């Protein structure tokens, strides 16, 4: 097996088993899992490498495929980063560590990244607990935890929700996060020349819904969760 | 001109010039920040890197510096170190804390990289996750039963009556066998 293929397949096996190689770059596509909460098929990694051909590799095996189609696929992936952005911020190593710990602690399904004026807030929550049908009764409260970063460049108001299972795949390193206007969230670790792209899941934690009648009737004004 | 004055002047001139390094780093960081949200940002990044102007990792350091409101405040330039590495680590500290460090001179123009790194790590470790749920006063009852027989039904009955009175979100129940 080619050295580049074996190295990349091994290094990113935890992300996905589909690898697209071109002469100057590689793309890893996240895997779909039978268990929805473990799927990271909303995630793609873009990196640089030197390779002679344009090929598709699945589970370390080169698959015969038309080169033109693979080039087209690669250009579509690259077009995801050719977008203007609502904002960008620094997510420090410690922040990533804490968010990952929090995801595990509350068994979170999603993270919502949104601006609060000129700073950025990341809300971590378990969406299943807000669904009436699947909501587990008693003892389980609807927890939302959040992390704030004021090292931010906010151009416009934004809100984007990403899959917690995909976030868990990120390396624990200082990372620049860019919120693109095309619904892609771009994570770039400072020390690596890699881009982790995640797609907006387009949901918002419905914290304005109160399951307690007593609590509900005592609240006359509730702010929308976008601020 | 006597010797002392010459030395003082020399030091002043050199230090003024050296301090401009801090200003130049932060001004460059601000310019990068200006273009960071543009649609052709990835091309700008690539070109800066391939033409050996600024390496991508250094660009990211500078972006973090440029996004920190305390470091980009011109009034603080004089109090900051003239090294992008050191400035980067300071940029990871939250604004309110960083202002405090600058005011008490823990952060100063000659702070070494190792010190800035330590300061950022130490402070970041102290931060705690917060929760949206406000902290209300709590009442904790402990009921000791003589046997486990009927324990579940009794606890469910108590739980239900408390929920009726205070609402489900206000009541939490733990049982120990």
Alpha plus pi helix count of chain B: 7
Tally of helical runs of chain A: 5
Which blocks of ≥5 consecutive residues of chain B have pLDDT under 50?
127-134
* Most extensive contact: A-B, 46 and 42 residues
Order of helices and strands of chain A: HEEEEEHEHEEEEEHEEEH
Relative strand content of chain B: under 5%
Which tags fit this structure?
heterodimer; A: 227 residues; 10-stranded antiparallel sheet; 4-stranded antiparallel sheet; 5 helices; globular; B: 177 residues; mainly alpha
Structural notes for this entry:
The complex is a heterodimer of chains A (227) and B (177). Chain A is an alpha+beta fold. Helix content of chain A is 20%, strand content 33%. Chain A has 5 helices and 14 strands. In chain A, the strands form 2 sheets. A 10-stranded antiparallel β-sheet of chain A has the order 5-4-1-2-3-14-13-12-6-10, with helices on both faces. A 4-stranded antiparallel β-sheet of chain A has the order 9-8-7-11. The radius of gyration of chain A is 20 Å and the shape is globular. The termini of chain A are far apart. In chain B, α1 crosses α3 and α3 crosses α4. With 177 residues, chain B is mostly helical. About 5% of the residues of chain B have low confidence. The chains are: A alpha+beta (227), B mainly alpha (177). At the A-B interface, β6, α3, β9 and α5 of A face α2, α3, α6 and β1 of B.
